[in-house]
């Protein structure tokens, strides 16, 4: 197997150093290997569908499954989709594979839990589904046994899914909108079907179906907030078209926004591999989504004139501790106001994670750090989950939230603890 | 591509011809032969490379030299010397606050910035301020004592006799 | 070639009055029994003209006094030590010991360490053996020299030897200080030749002036002024900077990845690419150029997932083909187990851990067609020389390895490997080369302290007496250091360039496995897993297997005490007769105010309640060296994890050379012990190590440090024992026992993270 050896040996060698002078190179997204052969096409589609993201654990072999998904109804584990005959899909027929992708029905006729996004994949053409299958079947076989799901009663009964599907699932292939351009339709196919962006970015209804009235307005999943990606000023409305395209293929916009957590994984595993034409198509489509208001205030709406906490208050002590930690642990990379030296990643207020009053993603990034491979290279921030304790992380997040996020942040060790448990 | 630039280091103007993206650490160590700042991680994680830039602790391994400009840089060599030790350096000697000492210059520089902003830190303040500086040898207890001792000296307090760094109490003659 | 900055030969920490330049300019330095081999002379002079005056080659025979020390015409005492300063303070301690024996002041000492051309071969500086073993020949040489000087003085002053007394490098007639001669004048114009008298008595303890005193460490001042020369700080004229680009199977024992292609166009001109087999490096004039090029170079490797899944590591280790060896046995443990009224069994697991060196390894080498000089922070200059000679295909005596202190290593970190990298690259490019490992290099590629599994069974009588004890552990060898005449297989560069597989003797995994308690029946067995089967390259990490085995043994004694309803301290004392063992346990428990107890105090019921508890552990390091007892006090809650509030240590390592230096080591052991118990675990996937920086492999921070209270038991009439490791072995079990005392949860897998605690709570 040729693996990403470069990624490994190269990891952590350097950080991007200069904040000044970073600009968006034109057409930074590399053209992915053109679809010369069926296998290349399969790889491209598999990447675009990000199968790897959900079917590979952190230390596991690609596509061997076992990633745990905590849902309100219990814990699900992604399956082994390598060609192993016993544990994987090696013994599946083409039709069985297509049925799973299109109809959410397993090999033995059982309904599949919709954590597997067949509600999106149902739109894929049969041809594309088969290309994905052929690619998966050509990957290294891993005889890895996945733990069985741990669903609470009555959700452990899959026949209930029949009812769920009735409410939340429309089986059927993608139908092009004749009124829109070919590019727009390609974008819709990539975004809705292959990329299944809505699975994270669209809020869910009571029955955990996607709430299409609020398409892409943002939602919380696995402890992370997927932000509003509609063209509203609280979403991506203030981004230039160029910025949006750059973001999609790199996962960041210098001095403006940086993706972490699951989005960084999506960039690493999927988006960075897409061709510039496809990135363009996705952006074209996203720009036409009806705007929705999200929870993160637009930068222009944030006022940075918070009252100082009362002296001797607990909050003042937290702020002092946070400031101290920020100065030693953070400032060298995140010199925040342009008033000092260095800092590869300044301009904190621009980051949604800093302005979002739930503090979720900010806490997550402190705990888990950040690792992202975009089309423009590797980005890294250390995880502080064991380098700082809960009180310290709470102090840093409170300080950053108040000072650079412009909101009345006051996080406690308890808040940090809760977020730890989400992971 | 290299550029010529002038850096203000330990009170002197020093001219260097470098690639401006080179992290300050390598410029200090290799161009200016100031090797007190150490390479530990190159990721801003450990603090071994800390120097002061305009009085603030900066991790020189992630700071591009080109971004420094006219700001004044102080390294451990500029803090004091055997002839004229800074109270922090003297306190680290008095407390014997070192094992391998690879982390120590970063500790001292970070502590210097702390004492500038807080003349009478509590032990908890010191621990918090140094907690992003890593020490593999486990010298932490002595480092906290040394910073506390230096703080006292810098406030003009004279060391009490029982402050002596090396205490031989607790030695029992077992035979 | 001599380093431009820093000195390879002489400790740069010397006070100015004793600087090398100063010393060498002085008049005729003479060795006692100085007998420079004429044949070596020209080479030495060529290698280092300045040193021809006083620095002489290593003696062929280490039984000669002058192999170890030399007194100059200026009255300075130069010590030649094969043991080296690793940041633990041994340099100061060794100076104290030798100066003491020779009745000379500390200030007159100079220290030359670890140089294959100058110092004796004392193997590795490791295993807490420097003070107890390493100091002995120096001390004997000093005692012999003292006698010779006294004899000569007696002759000169026309008195009997026993009428003389000495101090500060002078000898005078007792009661008449006017009748005196100095060592310098005794030696000044003649040679004294002698071999070491192995029988000579050392100075009486009651005459000690230096030994037993907290003499400040000689190296600390220049370190806090930023002027000490670590190996990282060394430069040599014309030196280039190199970085090694490594395959994906990071840290694996067997590196099987193959280099498929290197895109030379991916890096700027002016940077050289060096390749030999799978050994690949970039070389540049500027350090940052080399780093950037290593980052930019496009390389394709072919690799296979060959390592076990991490969650199956311990199961797989127990199933591996291994060699069984009885470490200790008495009576018939298995029969007694069968007959016991109650038996319990427990499995303890310890992960791979790495060396926490804050400075990644670094080395400078200058290899020419017929000679090699390598500046290294290796723990053994001689064994490294031998392996480098093989790597470079040169005769051993053409290679000179010079020790220069590095960042604290705590065992076999990347120091030897990086020297091999530098040497190989220097040979290929024909220029002096400095290699500085990256953080990821050190985290990923330094040899790891081995993972181990310990399975214990114990039998109790109805009265609560321990009737049987069995111990089985599974361990790879803890030593794959460079070993003389074993070739280059224990150097990474050798593995990569020539496809060699590391190897090493069955050492370390049985350390502290044996029984120090007087159980009627016991059986202790080690199952040695061959080096090449260890998923990650195993080697020496502080205390070797002592920490894993003591963790298991001392946790299990507590488990038996719990089963018997006994106080853990009383339980231990029931089975100990060694007075020194009893003394440390009593000292620690008294100091900590231990109250007899039946653990646990309480059972944890809610995840947010915070409970506190105390636990103790005892060990005699290596079952024959220093004695340590520890009382740990912890606060535990499932939500917030384990916080160690206080550690009380009682420590008996015989004669104490330097109490403050000792205390410094004990504190370091305690803190690193807590770090290894609560935080440290190397993470790997099926290809290689993935924890490549401090975020992924965290260590103790200032936020985690406890109060540490130390009782030193001094035994001036007994020989000194090493203190670099003993304390750490007792730390993990003391914490585990305290957690049990607090909560009733028994943690048997290190590190004790919140997740583990939570899992134990859910399972309870
Ligand atoms: S070397 Fe700069 S922070 Fe570690
Ligand atoms: S004293 Fe060695 S790393 Fe701190």
TrEMBL record, chain A:
Sequence ranges assigned to domain Cytochrome c in this UniProt record: 37-140, 182-290, 317-404
UniProt xrefs under InterPro entries: Cyt_c-like_dom (IPR009056), Cyt_c-like_dom_sf (IPR036909), Cytochrome_c-type_DH (IPR051459), Membr-bd_ADH_cyt_c (IPR014353)
Record keywords: Cell membrane, Heme, Iron, Membrane, Metal-binding, Repeat, Signal
Signal peptide: 1-28
SUPFAM superfamilies from the UniProt entry: Cytochrome c
Compartment(s) of residence: Cell membrane
Source domain of life: Bacteria
PANTHER family: ALCOHOL DEHYDROGENASE CYTOCHROME C SUBUNIT (PTHR35008:SF8), BLL4482 PROTEIN-RELATED (PTHR35008)
Protein's UniProt name: Cytochrome c
Gene source species: Allohahella marinimesophila
Source lineage: Bacteria, Pseudomonadati, Pseudomonadota, Gammaproteobacteria, Oceanospirillales
UniProtKB/TrEMBL annotation, chain B:
CDD domains: fer2
Annotated 2Fe-2S ferredoxin-type domain residues: 3-79
Name of one Pfam family that matches: Fer2_2
Recorded superkingdom: Bacteria
Gene3D superfamilies in the cross-refs: 3.10.20.30, [2Fe-2S]-binding domain
PANTHER family: BLR6046 PROTEIN, OXIDOREDUCTASE WITH IRON-SULFUR SUBUNIT
Protein name: (2Fe-2S)-binding protein
Organism annotation: Allohahella marinimesophila
From TrEMBL, chain C:
PANTHER family (UniProt xref): ALDEHYDE DEHYDROGENASE (PTHR47495), BLL3820 PROTEIN (PTHR47495:SF1)
Sequence ranges assigned to domain Aldehyde oxidase/xanthine dehydrogenase a/b hammerhead in this UniProt record: 225-305
Protein name: Xanthine dehydrogenase family protein molybdopterin-binding subunit
SMART domains reported in the protein's UniProt record: Ald_Xan_dh_C
Organism: Allohahella marinimesophila
Record-linked InterPro entries: Ald_Oxase/Xan_DH_a/b, Ald_Oxase/Xan_DH_a/b_sf, AldOxase/xan_DH_MoCoBD1, AldOxase/xan_DH_MoCoBD2, AldOxase/xan_DH_Mopterin-bd_sf, N-heterocyclic_Hydroxylase, OxRdtase_Mopterin-bd_su_IorB, TAT_signal
Domain of life: Bacteria
